[in-house]
């Protein structure tokens, strides 16, 4: 594994981006009052969680109950662990210390039940590592290592690509029908774990899985959405930038930015060039990315997963600023129409095909990434619109909740763990100019966990 070098995930490609998109006349705004609002909402939501669901995985913000994830029927402290580095970077130090104390006294991963290897890694292993980055407590690193060790049996396949599920106590594995995202979204967390512990197994397992999936790309250099981890046989033909694939491409770039890994950069460049060549689709002046047959390039559908709205920021990071800005603008137009993005959008029909919103952070993620690159004030305004819409429609009696329908703004009753790690952090960082974060050299994972750039 190579040492950490370079500017980090959202580093200093500003010169290139500025050439591609000259900064518009800025609407000068003092953003610190909005940052204070974000911090106050985080503190209020945490206190609701502390009072009603302490140590539980997820709070139900409408009813005040709780739910488990990712281990059915047993709690792992998901929300608490995901929130830790957000609390720290916001300066909510007493709340952060309270959370770390819970992990020390109560976190136990030796439980007889199966978890998603992918979700557990990005959320819990990543959350523990980012909390360790914030405060340096070796207990947090030890907990992250213990959990990763319990996930490692999933990687013992002929290809090196992991099974989707593993039992945390027994190591029993299940479901070989996996996808690029669940194969290739480990390297930053597991590489960081190898760097901190001196044990190369974590980095090597993650990198072997990435190589195995990439090696099976089609002659068009596209990846499909389902693959057998035992044989490497593709089980589907659809290529997408959305769910089941999105973070595979993100983590190729991250391997380059976080470790200076040229192999990751070469794989990223090849995959993104293929996506731009075969999936780029303009309709009514807007840029979208169609789902296509991974071997022929034929368009299969024009539905866009909301999760893909992060992709504009990734494109800009990788040197495709015009396309990245255009794609983000396409999603911003949908947000302007509904206030909150629907889970799925058919760009040919100009209509939502899934009406809910699972309290998603991806457009705020793209805005933050683009702002770090060019400091254009429009990205702060886009993030401000995202935050204000969330506060208006997602706020419930005991926290922030999903929406069942973005057209009526009818609330559901669920706050996902990523809300604590992602958009609240993006909002804070883009508005606050906090001295606790290095805005020039940093790394945030796909789950928003800060693995590089916290300033103690």
Task: Please provide a written account of the structure.
This protein is α+β, with helices and mostly antiparallel strands and 456 residues long. It has one domain (14-452): Glycosyltransferase (Alpha/alpha barrel). The chain is built from 17 helices and 21 strands. The protein has helices spanning 14-20, 32-52, 78-89, 93-106, 117-135, 138-151, 180-184, 187-197, 201-215, 246-259, 262-278, 311-317, 321-338, 362-374, 377-393, 418-421, 423-432; strands spanning 58-59, 66-67, 114-116, 165-167, 173-174, 177-178, 227-228, 238-239, 280-283, 286-289, 291-293, 299-301, 303-305, 344-346, 351-354, 395-396, 399-400, 403-405, 410-411, 443-444, 450-452. The strands form nine sheets. Strands 3-4-5 form a three-stranded antiparallel β-sheet. Strands 8-11-12 form a three-stranded antiparallel β-sheet, with no helix packed on it. β11 and β12 form a beta hairpin.
Descriptive terms for the model:
alpha+beta; disordered N terminus; 456 residues; 3-stranded antiparallel beta sheet; Glycosyltransferase; 12% strand; single chain
